[in-house]
Known about the structure:
The protein is α+β, with helices and mostly antiparallel strands. It has one domain: Beta-Lactamase (2-Layer Sandwich). Helices cover 39% and strands 24% of the residues. Strands 1, 2, 3, 4, 5 and 6 form a six-stranded antiparallel β-sheet that branches. The protein starts with a helix and ends in an 8-residue tail after the last strand. Mean pLDDT is 87; it is low at 7-24.
Amino acid sequence: MKRNAIAAAGVLFLIFGLVSTVLAGTRDDCILKCKEAAELVKSKGIDTAIKEISSQNNRFVWNDGVSYVFLMNMDCRMLAHPIHPEMTKSNGLIETKDVNGKPMFVDFINAAKKGKGWVKYDWTVPGKDVTKPKHTFIYRVPDTNYFVGAGFYVMAPGEFF
């Protein structure tokens, strides 16, 4: 009995260790991509950044289009979004809420005011008819009115798209 309990604990430790490693890599990817996108804004200008980030086939879209960078301004206007370009047509997204009524764009602005931060909410997975918890990293482009974001979906162990 004691041996089974130890074996089960070992298996759980291994599973949670692997899951946290995968999530850490995903978190790191989001941070890295946001910083690269912010550097693009600073080095090439906002018009070039909007054009590149808006493209569905750019270096800021990965994981088969499930993860991506978007670009907004501090007035809560979407400037570039490779998956949902229709969001750029709105004059402001401050009133937009997730499926649970959470005004996540308010949280985006608050994180950007601090320079960076993580926002948790529920969002539809691109190309799928399913909503999952999403963690999005928000990064303010230094010395500008712009910020970028990139996120990952929280998956159950063994769940894949």
